[in-house]
Structure formats: structure tokens, C-alpha cells
Specification:
By secondary structure, the chain is an all-alpha fold. It contains 10 helices and 2 strands, in the order ααααββαααααα.
């Protein structure tokens, strides 16, 4: 394997390990693993599952530390061994999950998918309805909003929502396929969908209005953002940001940290000026 392939596989391995850690935590705090009197599982089964969850968490921590200590260009055998260890850990988590599968998983997942499909349909109908205009001949025609001015950010928010809904639908369907949907995550889907248009709006504001700040050359300004091309650029970028909703939110948090540092610096300077204005000048100066 070349260095680029190794870096890619290490990134995938870390992402898979994080996903496995989430699963272990979910099963560890599953109500059916507690010692409540109304627990539907036999006491012996509960005790075994709790021990298995603790044991697999220990194995995960050990593998996690070995992955974090990998050099920039790890040996092929070391990387393959870590991938093998992850598969074994994931299999042991599957064995815990096997005892916790219930009809509630399917009902909660199916309900979430139905609501997401409904939200997609309502958003699409609203988008098309707001873009239909009556022509002089009396017929209806689809017309995008203006590519200039604040109105264009309506397109940004709609296409950010479309991308986010596609991401959430795929996520929900994937967990249903794995029989691993967690009903406690239903509110997470709502929160991610509600934040997506605003995160997309802020990031696209940087792209569309501050192109001079980040563009080393002017090909974006001279071609992509020209009249006629700008609508397709907005659709493409906004949909992709919605589709990568978690990554977009991380970028927005980095941006907000920079904004907070700017505000903190400005407030600090104002505070220093205010302090100097009320400083005690009665103390005689020493010569």
C-alpha cells in the first residue's frame, strides 16, 4: 500500500472505531441492562451482557490507543492487524446487540423514516410552489429566485435542507438495515434538520460574499459566480453542505471560534480605554 492509501484506511478505521464506541455506550446504558425489578430480561442474561459490555469497552480502549500511536506511515501488517481487531470488536458488539433487538427498534425507525419522507415532500412542494410564476400567456413557469441580493439565500436554505434530509434518510435507513435504530435519537434527527439551513446559510455567506478573501485566483469570481452559472453553483454547494451536515457544523463552529476571538479582542481594547479614562491620577508622579 502507498502512503495515500494508508492514510485513507487509517481515517476510515478511526471513523469505524468511533461508530463502534457509540454503539457500546448505547448498549451500556440500555435500560434492559439495569437491575430494575421490571426488567424483561432474565437476571443471568442481564449480568452477562453487562460483563460483555465492560469487556468489549476495555478491548476498544486498547485498540484505540494503538491506533492513535500509529506513525505517519504505518507498516502494512500493523494496519491490517488493527483492522482485524476492529472487526473482532465489532462482532462482539453485534453479539450484545443480538440480545437487545426488539420490535421497538423497527417501529421507531419506520416512524422516523416516514416523517423524513413527509418533510422531504413538504419541502419540495413548498420550493416548487414558491418558484412558480404566471407568464404573460397565462401558463405557469418555474423561475429561480434572483442570483443577486439577499433573496438568493432562500435558495441556499432550501437546498441545504434537501441535502440534510437526504443525509438523514440514508442514516435512518442504514441503522434500520443493521437493526440498530435507537429511539432516543429521534430528537437528534429533528435538531440536525432544523440547524442545517442556518449552518448552510452562514457558510455560503462566506463563499458568495467574501470570495476576495479566500480566492487566490479569480476563476470562481470570473466564471462560477457569473450570471447564469451562479444558480447552479448555489444549488451544488448548498446541497453538498446539507449532505455533509456534521462536517458543515464543525466548520461553522471553527468559524464561530474565530468570531468570538475577534469580539473578545475588540471588547478587550474598549475595556482598556475605559479603564484608562477612570484611572486614578491623584497619585503624584515620582521623578
Amino acid at each position: 500500500m502507498d502512503s495515500k492509501e494508508k492514510r485513507t484506511r487509517v481515517g476510515i478505521l478511526r471513523a469505524n472505531m468511533n461508530e463502534t464506541a457509540v454503539r457500546i455506550r448505547r448498549y451500556t446504558v440500555d435500560p434492559r441492562l439495569c437491575e430494575a425489578q421490571d426488567n424483561p430480561l432474565p437476571k443471568a442474561t442481564v449480568e452477562k451482557l453487562r460483563q460483555d459490555a465492560d469487556a468489549v469497552w476495555g478491548k476498544w480502549l486498547e485498540a484505540h490507543m494503538r491506533i492513535e500511536k500509529l506513525p505517519a506511515d504505518p507498516a502494512d501488517n500493523a494496519l491490517l492487524e488493527l483492522e482485524k481487531d476492529h472487526l473482532q470488536i465489532d462482532h462482539e458488539v453485534d453479539l450484545i446487540q443480538r440480545e437487545l433487538i426488539s420490535e421497538d427498534i423497527f417501529r421507531a425507525g419506520g416512524r422516523t423514516v416516514r416523517w423524513l419522507v413527509l418533510a422531504m415532500a413538504v419541502t419540495a412542494i413548498a420550493y416548487i410552489g414558491l418558484h412558480m410564476v404566471r407568464t404573460e400567456s397565462g401558463s405557469w413557469d418555474f423561475e429561480p429566485w434572483s442570483e443577486w441580493g439577499p433573496v438568493k439565500y432562500g435558495e441556499v436554505m432550501f437546498w441545504g435542507m434537501f441535502g440534510c434530509l437526504c443525509y438523514l434518510l440514508l442514516t435512518a435507513a442504514t441503522y434500520l438495515l443493521r437493526r440498530d435504530f435507537d429511539r432516543w435519537y429521534q430528537t437528534w434527527y429533528i435538531a440536525v434538520f432544523l440547524r442545517s439551513p442556518f449552518v448552510t446559510l452562514i457558510l455560503m455567506l462566506i463563499i458568495l460574499e467574501f470570495v476576495e478573501w479566500y480566492g487566490e485566483d479569480n476563476w470562481i469570481h470570473d466564471y462560477i459566480l457569473e450570471e447564469g452559472n451562479k444558480f447552479y453553483f448555489i444549488v451544488f454547494m448548498s446541497f453538498c453542505l446539507g449532505l455533509a451536515s456534521d462536517t458543515a457544523a464543525s466548520i461553522a463552529r471553527s468559524l464561530s471560534n474565530g468570531v468570538c476571538e475577534l469580539v473578545s479582542g475588540a471588547v478587550g481594547k474598549v475595556a482598556m480605554k475605559l479603564k484608562s479614562a477612570v484611572a486614578d491620577t491623584s497619585t503624584p508622579t515620582k521623578h
